[in-house]
Amino acid sequence: MDKVLKLGLPAGSLQEATAELFRKAGYKITFASRSYYPTVDDPEIHCTLIRAQEMARYVRDGSLDCGLTGHDWVVENGAVDAVTELAELIFSKVSRRPVRWVLAVPNDSPIREPKDLQGKRIATEVVNITRNWLASHGVTAQVEFSWGATEVKPPRLADAIVEVTETGSSLRANNLRILCDILTSTTRFIANPAAAADPWKREKMDDLILMLKGAMAAEGKVGLMMNVRKVDVDRVIGVLPALQKPTLSALSDPDWIDVMTIINEDTVRHIIPRLKAAGACGIVEFPLSKVID
Fold it and tell me: What CATH number does residue 274 fall under?
């Protein structure tokens, strides 16, 4: 039987962001209508679309060798010690910031601190995380699973909610204030322990992670290449806010060298005029698909 890596991809809100990240990493994923088995241009990878909330469960029991899901859902499923975390991949549907699970109450609620939740009703999608957090504060409350639209439930259907947010805008729009943070989460590449111990599968996963991280590292960065007279090199290098020291290469003319570096894309319009003034010429800006250390 041909060797195959069973990879779980998150369905739902992260699906498109995940597909775009894989595309930048060099993997073309194609989603067919009504199919939960997208194709990828690597015959050694078999993809399955699974909701992030369930990913850890299927990786834990070996139905999937590996998958991408949030740390929050690994915790919620009680799988922290049952799966092997191979990498943290900080991306989401809105930004590159971690997401936060927060406790929120109506703006006019008398609830000000955890002890005020005693005996109250809390709606959330992360029931286990919420119950464990309440227990750590010595609070007993009624925690109810919410199927969605959690922000609209207070004050009529719940006294408080535990909800995920990146910017807090949805909570503010529903007249809610954040009382405290409960958990911070980022996307993780997790693996079944047996799959992670298999040499072929582990190498396949490590290669995939390397390319994904390289694609993420290249986001918002560009390369710059230019010709510089040797007498002007120090001045030109002084202008460059490089990730590392720029690469210097000899040219056919012994009085000139080629300088190449990587910088943040949003600084290019400020840097190029200064490079020109410092003596650089033949300046070329080029896009980057991956940056791998």
Answer: 3.30.70.120
Total domains in the chain come to 3
What token pair was written down for 192?
């079944």
Residue 292 maps to a domain: no
pTM: 0.86
**Residues 174 and 105: beta-carbon distance below 8 Å:** no
Q: State whether 78 and 212 are in the same domain.
A: yes
How far is 46 from 149, CA to CA, in rounded Å?
33
H or E stretch at 115: none
Is 234 contained in some domain?
yes
User: Taking phi first (over 0 means left), then psi (-120 to 50 degrees means alpha), and beta for anything else, what does residue 82 get?
Assistant: alpha
- At residue 166, the pLDDT reads 82
Q: By C-alpha distance, which of 193, 11, 3, 10 is closest to 86? A: 193
Q: What's the domain range around 170?
A: 99-184
Condensed to tens digits (0 to 9), the pLDDT of residues 170-228 reads 899 999 999 999 999 999 999 999 999 999 999 999 999 999 999 999 999 999 999 99
Work out the number of other CB atoms within 10 angstroms of the CB of residue 87. Answer: 17
Do 84 and 152 have their domain in common?
no
Tokens of 161: 């909610």
